[in-house]
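User: I'm new to structure prediction. If I give you an amino acid sequence, what do you actually give back? Let's try with this one:
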Amino acid sequence: MANEPNIALARRLNIVAWVISALVLGLVVMMRRIKLETSVDFSMLPAVHAAINTITSLVLIMAFVQIRKKRVERHRRLMYVAIFLSLLFLLSYVTYHITTPETAYCKEGSIRMVYFTLLISHIVLAAIIFPFILFTFIRAYTRQYDRHRRMARWVFPIWLYVAVSGPIVYLMLRPCYG
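Assistant: Good question. You get back a string of structure tokens that encode the predicted 3D arrangement of the chain. For your 178 residues, that looks like this:
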């Protein structure tokens, strides 16, 4: 019985995931309008965000390797780390954007098109994938392993793209910071 899928728990957690996703999306949209005055200098956070995303991408790759080797417990632990890092990133990202003025991209020419294509794809895919990361996690947590695998096959590469493209966007924007 302990290995049976817990569908009732999954339903409750799905509702929580939808609520969290809506709140996060609302917060991210509103953070552009909210500016808090603070004496703390958060200008170092974009580099921290890039580091967190880089580590997240490495953890995701390690988790993928572990599950391919059928090392489920190692995979599980790494996925908890990836979720924690993503939460840490999100809290830091919101903190930065509600306390610090936006940085405009300062380069000209065709690199500008590359930057904005990468930035827009990163933002759109991050917004789309967020709830699905939670749902994929819920499928595993509630022992719905077949559903978890089916979701993870397409959630993983998108999450990895978002984690890799974030630091690239940062490196492209880095010369533009004051």
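You can read the tokens as a compact description of the fold. Here is one thing that stands out. The chain has a mean pLDDT of 94.
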